[in-house]
Specification:
Length: about 425
């Protein structure tokens, strides 16, 4: 038997694995907790399938441009691959691999019957006309059409992709199949088999796990001080729900600036302002605050819901809060995580906290298969139940094993994935 390290694939640079390297370090952290299942650990360190495609399109000026596209299926032991498609000029294979693996972990952590997958195109969508964007989307969908499908791998929106792009993807796949297949993507418009409640689902999930964390630590939501970074789909909705439950949104930050109001910012009015102007700047109902002061505002709950790598070793020491609920993907660096842990701040990790989106995507897919659509109330009730169950399972492991909620979430998820792997056995 060879004992050489197996998890550095030949197609990445061994000395700069990028986001995939971060993911591998996270997996190594949970290895000691997996018991006999650790014999399957290498499964988690290798994507099942990677497809790299050329996406040529004719630009409006008559020239031909080529873009590089990816679809990575990290693991399908528990069900079809599931994960979004990202359009960004800096997308890399390493990034898509890591995102696909984090989808495996997230889907297993909330126990929806999916594996993990992710896709991306190295393209700046803002530089394309609508027609060019549609052609890129359709050609990419045709190219990855050999591995996606309602029972195999189900894409969804991610950074810079939206309902319209999902509609084009669904149509392209359906045309190639000769029949309408609404279940091939989620995050579709309601008129094409989309689900009620999907748009608010991630923010609602953040709110639900935030309330669970508060309840278990004896913090009352009534009067709790909340700060939110990112006032978009996730942060804006979470802020509104916390406020409706009696909390005060004392600080908000987005790419246009930071606001503070000790008595609580009116989240509903701020959402309307952002919808009109594109950012929180210029909102009359709060004081302007310097951006770097945002992190030191004294709060009970802090919701990073903007970008990755926002809480680092530079600002983690300044943070004065009790609970951090990660709405964004990857907002906290590993070094910051350790600082927050030492300060006794409870961090609810992204793989649980922002899983409301994929949970309602799962509901959308189920509704598409049965062609029977649920009411928004039914969706919200089921979402709350899934989020609470996920939180409880992770909380229990965190208490029993005396590990952070992040490590506990990875333990719960990796065990579920590897248990499925073990029970299926190796084929052939
Ligand atoms: P969005 O585009 O609706 O909002 C992003 C927000 O971040 C905006 O308010 C923007 O102003 C703010 N922002 C951007 N740059 C910033 C900066 N430098 N400093 C402070 N704020 C900045 O996006 P979203 O859908 O709300 O996603 C936010 C995060 O949540 C992302 O990490 C995303 O991957 C993650 N997420 C989203 C979903 C979903 O269903 N939308 C699901 C899971 C995870």
């Amino acid at each position: 038997m060879s004992s050489q390290p197996q998890s550095v694939p030949s197609y990445l640079h061994a000395d700069d694995l990028g986001p995939w390297g971060n993911y591998l370090r996270q997996v190594d952290r949970v290895a000691p907790y997996l018991g006999s299942l650790s014999r399957w650990l290498e499964t988690l360190k290798r994507p099942k399938r990677i497809l790299i495609v050329d996406v040529p399109i004719e630009l409006d000026n008559g020239t031909v441009a080529h873009f590089e596209g990816y679809r990575v299926q990290h693991n399908v032991s528990r069900g079809p691959g599931k994960g979004g498609v990202r359009y960004h000029q800096d997308v890399t294979l390493s990034e898509v691999m890591a995102l696909s693996a984090w989808m495996s972990v997230k889907n297993a952590a909330v126990n929806v019957p999916y594996g993990g997958a992710k896709g991306g195109i190295r393209v700046d969508p803002r530089a394309l006309s609508r027609g060019e964007l549609e052609r890129v989307t359709r050609r990419y969908t045709s190219e990855i059409g050999i591995i996606i499908g309602p029972n195999t791998d189900i894409p969804a929106p991610d950074v810079n992709t939206n309902e319209q792009i999902m509609a084009w993807m669904m149509d392209t796949y359906s045309m190639n199949q000769g029949q309408t297949a609404t279940g091939v993507v989620t995050g579709k418009p309601i008129t094409l088999g989309g689900s009620l409640g999907r748009r608010e689902a991630t923010g609602r999930g953040v709110f639900v796990v935030g309330c669970e964390a508060a309840r278990r630590t004896g913090l009352s939501i009534e009067g709790a001080r909340v700060a939110v970074q990112g006032f978009g789909n996730v942060g804006g909705i979470a802020a509104r729900l916390f406020q409706e439950a009696g909390a005060k949104v004392v600080a908000v930050q987005d790419h246009t600036g930071s606001l503070y109001k000790s008595g609580g910012i009116n989240a509903g009015a701020l959402l309307e302002h952002v919808a009109k102007t594109g950012g929180v700047a210029g909102f009359a109902g709060a004081e302007v605050m310097a951006n770097d002061e945002f992190w030191s505002v004294e709060t009970d709950i802090l919701v990073p819901a903007a970008l990755e790598n926002q809480i680092t070793e530079k600002n983690a020491g300044k943070i004065r809060t009790k609970i951090i609920v990660e709405g964004a993907n990857g907002p906290t660096t590993t070094a910051a995580d350790d600082i927050l842990h030492d300060k006794g701040i409870l961090v609810i990790p992204d793989v649980v906290a922002n899983a409301g989106g994929v949970t309602v995507s799962y509901f959308e897919w189920v509704q598409d298969f049965s062609s029977f659509f649920w009411t928004e109330n039914e969706i919200n009730e089921r979402l709350e139940r899934v989020m609470r169950e996920a939180f409880t399972a992770v909380w229990q492991v965190s208490s029993e094993q005396k590990v952070s909620m992040r490590t506990a979430a990875f333990i719960v998820a990796c065990k579920r994935i590897l248990m499925a792997r073990e029970m299926r056995g190796l084929y052939p």
